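haha ok so turns out i had the wrong file open the whole time. this is the CORRECT one, sorry everyone. sequence first:
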Amino acid sequence: MNKPTLPVLVLLLALFSMCGRPNTVSSTAGSTQKQTTQKRNLLYFDATANFKRFAYQDSIKYYLAKSKDAGVTDVIVDVKPITGEVLYPSKIAPVMNEWSGFTKPGGFDLLTVFIEEAHKLGMTVHASTNTFVAGHNYFDRGVVYNDPTKKHWQSLNYLPKGMTPITQIKTKYSAMTNPALPEVRQYELSVLKELITMYPKLDGIVLDRVRYDGIEADFSEASRKMFEQYIGQKVTNFPADIYTYSTTAKNKDGKPERVRGPLFNQWIEWRAKVIHDFIYEARAELKKINPNLIFGDYTGSWYPTYYEVGVNWASKEYDPSEKFDWASKNYKNFGYAEALDLYTTGSYYFEVEKKEAKNIDPNTVNRTEAGQDKGTDDWYTVEGSAEMAMKITKGKVPVYAGIYVEQYEDDREQFVKALKMCRAKSDGAMVFDIVHVINKGWWNELKRGLTE
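then structure:
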Protein backbone atom coordinates (compact mmCIF):
# COMPACT_ATOMS: atom_id res chain seq x y z
CA MET A 1 0.00 0.00 0.00
CA ASN A 2 1.38 3.43 -0.95
CA LYS A 3 2.00 5.95 1.83
CA PRO A 4 -0.29 9.01 1.79
CA THR A 5 1.17 12.11 0.17
CA LEU A 6 1.68 15.27 2.28
CA PRO A 7 -1.58 16.98 1.17
CA VAL A 8 -3.52 13.82 1.97
CA LEU A 9 -1.88 13.59 5.39
CA VAL A 10 -2.88 17.18 6.14
CA LEU A 11 -6.44 16.42 5.12
CA LEU A 12 -6.56 13.26 7.25
CA LEU A 13 -5.19 15.11 10.27
CA ALA A 14 -7.82 17.83 9.84
CA LEU A 15 -10.58 15.25 9.63
CA PHE A 16 -9.26 13.44 12.68
CA SER A 17 -9.17 16.70 14.62
CA MET A 18 -12.79 17.41 13.71
CA CYS A 19 -13.95 13.93 14.64
CA GLY A 20 -12.05 13.94 17.89
CA ARG A 21 -13.79 17.00 19.31
CA PRO A 22 -16.71 15.84 21.50
CA ASN A 23 -20.23 17.11 20.99
CA THR A 24 -19.46 19.26 17.98
CA VAL A 25 -22.47 20.60 16.07
CA SER A 26 -22.08 21.61 12.44
CA SER A 27 -22.91 25.23 11.68
CA THR A 28 -25.39 25.99 8.92
CA ALA A 29 -26.35 29.58 9.77
CA GLY A 30 -28.02 31.19 6.80
CA SER A 31 -28.13 27.95 4.79
CA THR A 32 -30.94 25.57 3.97
CA GLN A 33 -29.01 22.41 4.83
CA LYS A 34 -30.09 20.25 7.73
CA GLN A 35 -27.89 20.37 10.81
CA THR A 36 -25.88 17.41 12.00
CA THR A 37 -27.77 16.39 15.10
CA GLN A 38 -26.01 15.69 18.38
CA LYS A 39 -28.08 13.82 20.93
CA ARG A 40 -27.75 15.60 24.26
CA ASN A 41 -29.13 15.62 27.79
CA LEU A 42 -28.58 19.09 29.20
CA LEU A 43 -28.75 20.10 32.86
CA TYR A 44 -28.97 23.72 34.02
CA PHE A 45 -26.99 25.03 37.02
CA ASP A 46 -28.77 28.25 38.07
CA ALA A 47 -26.51 30.99 39.44
CA THR A 48 -28.39 32.27 42.48
CA ALA A 49 -30.26 29.09 43.46
CA ASN A 50 -26.92 27.28 43.68
CA PHE A 51 -24.76 30.22 44.73
CA LYS A 52 -23.59 28.80 48.06
CA ARG A 53 -23.51 25.16 46.91
CA PHE A 54 -21.04 25.84 44.13
CA ALA A 55 -18.82 28.19 46.10
CA TYR A 56 -16.66 25.13 46.80
CA GLN A 57 -14.61 23.10 44.33
CA ASP A 58 -15.37 19.71 45.85
CA SER A 59 -19.09 20.43 45.57
CA ILE A 60 -18.73 21.17 41.84
CA LYS A 61 -16.83 17.91 41.34
CA TYR A 62 -19.36 15.91 43.35
CA TYR A 63 -22.43 17.14 41.49
CA LEU A 64 -20.81 16.90 38.08
CA ALA A 65 -20.03 13.24 38.81
CA LYS A 66 -23.64 12.61 39.93
CA SER A 67 -24.92 14.35 36.81
CA LYS A 68 -22.70 12.28 34.56
CA ASP A 69 -23.89 9.07 36.26
CA ALA A 70 -27.50 10.15 35.71
CA GLY A 71 -27.00 10.42 31.95
CA VAL A 72 -26.29 14.13 31.60
CA THR A 73 -24.02 14.91 28.63
CA ASP A 74 -23.99 18.70 28.81
CA VAL A 75 -24.04 21.18 31.68
CA ILE A 76 -25.31 24.74 31.29
CA VAL A 77 -23.70 26.98 33.89
CA ASP A 78 -25.56 30.21 34.56
CA VAL A 79 -22.84 32.84 34.98
CA LYS A 80 -24.92 36.01 34.54
CA PRO A 81 -28.16 35.99 36.55
CA ILE A 82 -30.94 38.53 36.16
CA THR A 83 -29.21 41.18 38.32
CA GLY A 84 -26.70 41.72 35.52
CA GLU A 85 -23.88 40.71 37.84
CA VAL A 86 -21.57 37.86 36.80
CA LEU A 87 -19.92 34.89 38.49
CA TYR A 88 -16.49 35.33 36.93
CA PRO A 89 -13.85 38.10 37.21
CA SER A 90 -15.23 40.46 34.56
CA LYS A 91 -13.76 43.87 33.92
CA ILE A 92 -17.02 45.03 32.32
CA ALA A 93 -19.94 43.70 34.40
CA PRO A 94 -20.16 43.88 38.20
CA VAL A 95 -19.10 40.66 39.93
CA MET A 96 -21.48 38.86 42.29
CA ASN A 97 -19.55 37.83 45.39
CA GLU A 98 -22.51 37.79 47.79
CA TRP A 99 -26.04 36.50 47.55
CA SER A 100 -28.76 35.99 50.17
CA GLY A 101 -26.38 36.78 53.02
CA PHE A 102 -23.63 34.40 51.89
CA THR A 103 -20.25 35.71 50.75
CA LYS A 104 -18.06 33.47 48.62
CA PRO A 105 -14.78 32.44 50.24
CA GLY A 106 -13.02 32.78 46.89
CA GLY A 107 -9.77 31.08 45.98
CA PHE A 108 -10.81 29.61 42.63
CA ASP A 109 -12.60 30.52 39.43
CA LEU A 110 -16.00 28.81 39.25
CA LEU A 111 -16.30 28.53 35.48
CA THR A 112 -12.73 27.29 35.07
CA VAL A 113 -13.41 24.48 37.55
CA PHE A 114 -16.66 23.56 35.82
CA ILE A 115 -14.91 23.37 32.46
CA GLU A 116 -11.91 21.39 33.68
CA GLU A 117 -13.84 18.91 35.81
CA ALA A 118 -16.63 18.38 33.28
CA HIS A 119 -14.13 17.79 30.49
CA LYS A 120 -12.43 15.13 32.60
CA LEU A 121 -15.79 13.35 32.64
CA GLY A 122 -16.31 13.77 28.90
CA MET A 123 -19.06 16.33 29.38
CA THR A 124 -19.68 19.50 27.39
CA VAL A 125 -19.90 22.88 29.14
CA HIS A 126 -22.06 25.81 28.05
CA ALA A 127 -22.16 29.15 29.83
CA SER A 128 -25.58 30.78 30.12
CA THR A 129 -26.17 34.51 30.32
CA ASN A 130 -29.39 36.38 31.02
CA THR A 131 -29.05 38.96 28.30
CA PHE A 132 -31.64 41.75 28.23
CA VAL A 133 -32.23 41.96 31.98
CA ALA A 134 -30.26 43.94 34.52
CA GLY A 135 -32.00 43.90 37.88
CA HIS A 136 -33.92 41.84 40.41
CA ASN A 137 -37.12 43.65 41.37
CA TYR A 138 -37.69 41.62 44.53
CA PHE A 139 -34.39 42.84 46.00
CA ASP A 140 -33.99 46.22 44.25
CA ARG A 141 -30.60 44.97 43.16
CA GLY A 142 -28.70 44.99 39.92
CA VAL A 143 -27.22 47.14 37.20
CA VAL A 144 -30.27 49.34 36.55
CA TYR A 145 -30.61 49.90 40.29
CA ASN A 146 -26.98 50.45 41.19
CA ASP A 147 -25.58 52.26 38.15
CA PRO A 148 -27.21 55.67 37.57
CA THR A 149 -25.83 55.80 34.01
CA LYS A 150 -27.81 52.68 33.11
CA LYS A 151 -31.10 53.40 34.86
CA HIS A 152 -32.68 54.51 31.57
CA TRP A 153 -31.96 51.08 30.10
CA GLN A 154 -34.92 49.60 31.94
CA SER A 155 -38.08 48.77 30.03
CA LEU A 156 -40.93 51.27 30.02
CA ASN A 157 -44.13 49.25 30.08
CA TYR A 158 -47.53 50.34 28.79
CA LEU A 159 -50.05 49.21 31.40
CA PRO A 160 -53.75 50.01 31.83
CA LYS A 161 -52.71 52.63 34.38
CA GLY A 162 -50.24 54.18 31.94
CA MET A 163 -46.50 54.14 31.24
CA THR A 164 -44.59 52.48 34.09
CA PRO A 165 -40.85 51.79 34.50
CA ILE A 166 -40.36 48.10 35.10
CA THR A 167 -38.48 48.63 38.36
CA GLN A 168 -41.78 49.93 39.76
CA ILE A 169 -43.68 46.76 38.77
CA LYS A 170 -42.92 44.57 41.77
CA THR A 171 -45.09 41.70 40.51
CA LYS A 172 -42.29 41.10 38.00
CA TYR A 173 -38.99 39.82 39.36
CA SER A 174 -36.91 40.53 36.24
CA ALA A 175 -36.03 44.15 35.56
CA MET A 176 -35.84 43.76 31.79
CA THR A 177 -34.05 46.28 29.61
CA ASN A 178 -35.00 47.74 26.23
CA PRO A 179 -33.33 45.50 23.60
CA ALA A 180 -33.67 48.17 20.92
CA LEU A 181 -31.32 50.64 22.62
CA PRO A 182 -27.93 50.59 20.84
CA GLU A 183 -26.05 51.12 24.12
CA VAL A 184 -27.78 48.13 25.70
CA ARG A 185 -26.95 45.90 22.75
CA GLN A 186 -23.31 46.98 22.60
CA TYR A 187 -22.86 46.50 26.33
CA GLU A 188 -24.31 42.99 26.26
CA LEU A 189 -22.18 42.11 23.25
CA SER A 190 -19.09 43.35 25.06
CA VAL A 191 -19.92 41.15 28.06
CA LEU A 192 -20.37 38.09 25.82
CA LYS A 193 -17.17 38.75 23.90
CA GLU A 194 -15.20 39.16 27.11
CA LEU A 195 -16.62 35.90 28.46
CA ILE A 196 -15.70 33.91 25.34
CA THR A 197 -12.23 35.44 25.28
CA MET A 198 -11.59 34.68 28.95
CA TYR A 199 -12.58 31.02 28.60
CA PRO A 200 -11.23 29.62 25.30
CA LYS A 201 -11.97 26.03 26.44
CA LEU A 202 -15.66 26.80 26.93
CA ASP A 203 -17.65 24.61 24.54
CA GLY A 204 -20.74 26.73 24.10
CA ILE A 205 -22.89 29.67 25.04
CA VAL A 206 -26.64 29.49 25.70
CA LEU A 207 -28.32 32.88 25.59
CA ASP A 208 -31.32 33.37 27.85
CA ARG A 209 -33.83 36.23 28.03
CA VAL A 210 -32.90 37.58 24.62
CA ARG A 211 -36.32 39.17 24.47
CA TYR A 212 -38.63 41.94 25.56
CA ASP A 213 -40.33 41.78 28.93
CA GLY A 214 -43.75 41.22 27.38
CA ILE A 215 -46.32 42.71 25.05
CA GLU A 216 -46.35 45.83 27.26
CA ALA A 217 -42.67 46.59 26.53
CA ASP A 218 -41.04 48.84 25.42
CA PHE A 219 -42.98 52.06 24.86
CA SER A 220 -40.24 54.60 25.48
CA GLU A 221 -39.75 57.60 23.22
CA ALA A 222 -36.58 55.95 21.90
CA SER A 223 -38.56 52.89 20.79
CA ARG A 224 -41.17 55.09 19.17
CA LYS A 225 -38.55 56.90 17.08
CA MET A 226 -36.85 53.67 15.99
CA PHE A 227 -40.18 52.15 15.03
CA GLU A 228 -41.10 55.25 13.03
CA GLN A 229 -37.79 55.00 11.20
CA TYR A 230 -38.48 51.33 10.45
CA ILE A 231 -41.93 51.92 8.94
CA GLY A 232 -40.97 55.20 7.31
CA GLN A 233 -43.71 57.32 8.82
CA LYS A 234 -44.72 59.16 11.97
CA VAL A 235 -46.99 57.41 14.43
CA THR A 236 -49.81 59.89 14.89
CA ASN A 237 -51.33 58.34 17.99
CA PHE A 238 -48.82 56.61 20.21
CA PRO A 239 -49.37 54.15 21.78
CA ALA A 240 -53.01 53.93 20.61
CA ASP A 241 -51.95 53.08 17.04
CA ILE A 242 -50.23 50.01 18.52
CA TYR A 243 -52.96 49.05 20.98
CA THR A 244 -55.28 50.44 23.63
CA TYR A 245 -57.00 48.91 26.65
CA SER A 246 -60.70 48.19 26.66
CA THR A 247 -62.71 49.88 29.42
CA THR A 248 -65.20 46.99 29.53
CA ALA A 249 -63.80 43.71 28.13
CA LYS A 250 -61.55 41.49 30.26
CA ASN A 251 -59.04 38.84 29.17
CA LYS A 252 -58.52 35.34 30.61
CA ASP A 253 -56.58 36.80 33.54
CA GLY A 254 -59.36 39.24 34.39
CA LYS A 255 -57.35 42.23 33.17
CA PRO A 256 -58.50 44.85 30.62
CA GLU A 257 -58.46 43.42 27.11
CA ARG A 258 -55.97 44.86 24.63
CA VAL A 259 -57.52 46.32 21.48
CA ARG A 260 -55.15 46.25 18.53
CA GLY A 261 -54.48 49.44 16.62
CA PRO A 262 -53.70 49.83 12.90
CA LEU A 263 -49.94 49.44 13.39
CA PHE A 264 -50.02 46.47 15.78
CA ASN A 265 -48.70 43.87 13.31
CA GLN A 266 -45.94 46.15 12.08
CA TRP A 267 -44.93 46.80 15.69
CA ILE A 268 -44.76 43.05 16.33
CA GLU A 269 -42.71 42.64 13.17
CA TRP A 270 -40.25 45.39 14.14
CA ARG A 271 -39.70 43.97 17.62
CA ALA A 272 -38.95 40.54 16.11
CA LYS A 273 -36.40 42.22 13.85
CA VAL A 274 -34.72 43.82 16.88
CA ILE A 275 -34.13 40.43 18.49
CA HIS A 276 -33.31 38.71 15.18
CA ASP A 277 -30.61 41.26 14.38
CA PHE A 278 -29.02 40.92 17.82
CA ILE A 279 -28.90 37.12 17.54
CA TYR A 280 -27.14 37.28 14.19
CA GLU A 281 -24.75 39.98 15.35
CA ALA A 282 -23.89 38.07 18.53
CA ARG A 283 -23.26 34.89 16.56
CA ALA A 284 -20.92 36.64 14.12
CA GLU A 285 -18.96 38.43 16.85
CA LEU A 286 -18.54 35.35 19.04
CA LYS A 287 -17.61 33.06 16.15
CA LYS A 288 -14.80 35.49 15.26
CA ILE A 289 -13.31 34.82 18.68
CA ASN A 290 -14.02 31.08 18.80
CA PRO A 291 -15.17 29.53 15.49
CA ASN A 292 -15.85 26.20 17.24
CA LEU A 293 -18.19 27.74 19.82
CA ILE A 294 -21.61 26.10 20.03
CA PHE A 295 -23.93 29.10 19.73
CA GLY A 296 -27.20 28.35 21.52
CA ASP A 297 -30.42 29.97 22.65
CA TYR A 298 -33.08 29.17 25.25
CA THR A 299 -36.70 30.31 24.94
CA GLY A 300 -40.18 29.30 25.93
CA SER A 301 -41.95 26.75 23.72
CA TRP A 302 -45.30 28.58 23.46
CA TYR A 303 -44.68 29.91 19.94
CA PRO A 304 -48.28 30.96 19.18
CA THR A 305 -48.06 33.57 21.96
CA TYR A 306 -44.28 34.11 22.09
CA TYR A 307 -44.55 37.02 19.66
CA GLU A 308 -45.53 38.99 22.76
CA VAL A 309 -41.88 39.04 23.88
CA GLY A 310 -40.58 40.00 20.44
CA VAL A 311 -39.08 36.63 19.54
CA ASN A 312 -39.38 34.51 16.41
CA TRP A 313 -37.31 31.40 17.06
CA ALA A 314 -38.68 29.55 14.03
CA SER A 315 -36.94 28.92 10.74
CA LYS A 316 -37.27 31.58 8.06
CA GLU A 317 -38.96 28.89 6.00
CA TYR A 318 -41.89 28.79 8.42
CA ASP A 319 -44.56 31.41 7.71
CA PRO A 320 -46.74 32.06 10.77
CA SER A 321 -48.89 34.56 8.84
CA GLU A 322 -50.63 31.58 7.25
CA LYS A 323 -52.01 30.61 10.66
CA PHE A 324 -51.82 33.53 13.10
CA ASP A 325 -53.46 36.95 12.78
CA TRP A 326 -50.67 38.72 14.68
CA ALA A 327 -48.04 37.85 12.06
CA SER A 328 -47.40 40.08 9.06
CA LYS A 329 -46.15 38.65 5.77
CA ASN A 330 -42.66 39.90 6.64
CA TYR A 331 -42.61 38.35 10.12
CA LYS A 332 -41.10 35.09 8.82
CA ASN A 333 -38.03 37.00 7.62
CA PHE A 334 -37.03 37.49 11.25
CA GLY A 335 -36.96 33.87 12.28
CA TYR A 336 -33.50 32.97 13.55
CA ALA A 337 -33.31 29.17 13.86
CA GLU A 338 -30.73 29.24 11.06
CA ALA A 339 -28.39 31.30 13.25
CA LEU A 340 -28.21 28.68 16.00
CA ASP A 341 -26.06 25.60 16.61
CA LEU A 342 -28.25 24.55 19.54
CA TYR A 343 -31.77 25.44 20.60
CA THR A 344 -33.43 24.48 23.85
CA THR A 345 -37.04 25.26 24.56
CA GLY A 346 -38.99 25.16 27.79
CA SER A 347 -41.81 22.64 27.42
CA TYR A 348 -42.96 23.79 30.82
CA TYR A 349 -46.17 21.85 31.34
CA PHE A 350 -47.24 19.23 33.86
CA GLU A 351 -49.22 17.44 31.16
CA VAL A 352 -46.91 15.21 29.14
CA GLU A 353 -48.91 13.45 26.40
CA LYS A 354 -51.07 15.45 24.01
CA LYS A 355 -54.12 13.51 25.11
CA GLU A 356 -53.63 14.94 28.61
CA ALA A 357 -54.51 18.42 27.31
CA LYS A 358 -58.16 17.58 28.01
CA ASN A 359 -57.27 17.59 31.72
CA ILE A 360 -56.08 21.21 31.71
CA ASP A 361 -58.24 23.51 33.80
CA PRO A 362 -57.64 27.09 32.59
CA ASN A 363 -59.04 28.41 35.86
CA THR A 364 -56.37 26.76 37.99
CA VAL A 365 -53.41 26.19 35.67
CA ASN A 366 -50.28 27.99 36.86
CA ARG A 367 -48.56 29.70 33.94
CA THR A 368 -46.52 32.76 34.81
CA GLU A 369 -43.71 32.70 32.25
CA ALA A 370 -43.43 35.60 29.81
CA GLY A 371 -45.90 35.33 26.94
CA GLN A 372 -47.78 32.35 28.35
CA ASP A 373 -51.56 32.27 28.55
CA LYS A 374 -54.10 29.79 29.92
CA GLY A 375 -55.01 27.89 26.78
CA THR A 376 -55.84 24.19 26.51
CA ASP A 377 -54.43 23.35 23.07
CA ASP A 378 -52.37 20.20 22.84
CA TRP A 379 -49.17 22.21 22.42
CA TYR A 380 -49.61 23.08 26.10
CA THR A 381 -48.17 19.60 26.75
CA VAL A 382 -44.58 18.35 26.67
CA GLU A 383 -45.31 16.17 23.65
CA GLY A 384 -47.23 18.79 21.70
CA SER A 385 -44.78 21.61 22.33
CA ALA A 386 -41.76 19.46 21.41
CA GLU A 387 -43.42 18.38 18.18
CA MET A 388 -44.28 21.97 17.32
CA ALA A 389 -40.71 23.13 17.99
CA MET A 390 -39.31 20.44 15.71
CA LYS A 391 -41.83 21.33 13.01
CA ILE A 392 -41.30 25.07 12.86
CA THR A 393 -37.50 25.03 13.17
CA LYS A 394 -37.51 22.91 10.00
CA GLY A 395 -34.42 20.88 10.88
CA LYS A 396 -32.18 23.95 10.83
CA VAL A 397 -30.96 23.43 14.39
CA PRO A 398 -30.94 20.58 16.92
CA VAL A 399 -33.86 21.07 19.32
CA TYR A 400 -33.77 20.02 22.97
CA ALA A 401 -37.14 20.14 24.70
CA GLY A 402 -36.83 21.11 28.35
CA ILE A 403 -38.75 20.52 31.55
CA TYR A 404 -39.03 22.50 34.78
CA VAL A 405 -38.51 19.99 37.59
CA GLU A 406 -40.48 21.90 40.22
CA GLN A 407 -43.58 21.74 38.04
CA TYR A 408 -44.00 18.05 38.83
CA GLU A 409 -44.18 18.65 42.60
CA ASP A 410 -44.22 15.13 44.15
CA ASP A 411 -45.14 13.20 41.00
CA ARG A 412 -41.95 11.27 40.28
CA GLU A 413 -43.43 9.18 37.48
CA GLN A 414 -44.77 12.19 35.60
CA PHE A 415 -41.28 13.70 35.80
CA VAL A 416 -39.72 10.54 34.37
CA LYS A 417 -42.35 10.38 31.64
CA ALA A 418 -41.72 14.01 30.71
CA LEU A 419 -37.99 13.42 30.30
CA LYS A 420 -38.58 10.38 28.13
CA MET A 421 -41.01 12.39 26.02
CA CYS A 422 -38.44 15.16 25.50
CA ARG A 423 -35.97 12.58 24.23
CA ALA A 424 -38.54 10.86 22.04
CA LYS A 425 -39.97 13.97 20.40
CA SER A 426 -36.85 16.17 20.13
CA ASP A 427 -33.09 15.70 19.91
CA GLY A 428 -32.70 15.26 23.66
CA ALA A 429 -33.76 16.69 26.99
CA MET A 430 -32.99 19.83 28.94
CA VAL A 431 -33.56 19.85 32.70
CA PHE A 432 -34.10 23.03 34.71
CA ASP A 433 -32.65 23.02 37.33
CA ILE A 434 -30.21 20.87 39.29
CA VAL A 435 -31.29 22.59 42.52
CA HIS A 436 -34.72 20.94 42.27
CA VAL A 437 -33.23 17.52 41.56
CA ILE A 438 -31.04 17.93 44.64
CA ASN A 439 -33.84 19.19 46.88
CA LYS A 440 -36.21 16.42 45.83
CA GLY A 441 -33.56 13.72 45.80
CA TRP A 442 -34.67 12.69 42.32
CA TRP A 443 -31.34 11.40 41.03
CA ASN A 444 -32.67 7.92 40.29
CA GLU A 445 -35.68 9.43 38.52
CA LEU A 446 -33.40 11.72 36.52
CA LYS A 447 -31.31 8.71 35.44
CA ARG A 448 -34.39 6.75 34.45
CA GLY A 449 -35.73 9.63 32.42
CA LEU A 450 -32.44 10.25 30.64
CA THR A 451 -31.26 6.71 30.01
CA GLU A 452 -34.19 4.26 29.81
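Confidence is low (pLDDT under 50) at residues 1-35.
again sry for the mixup
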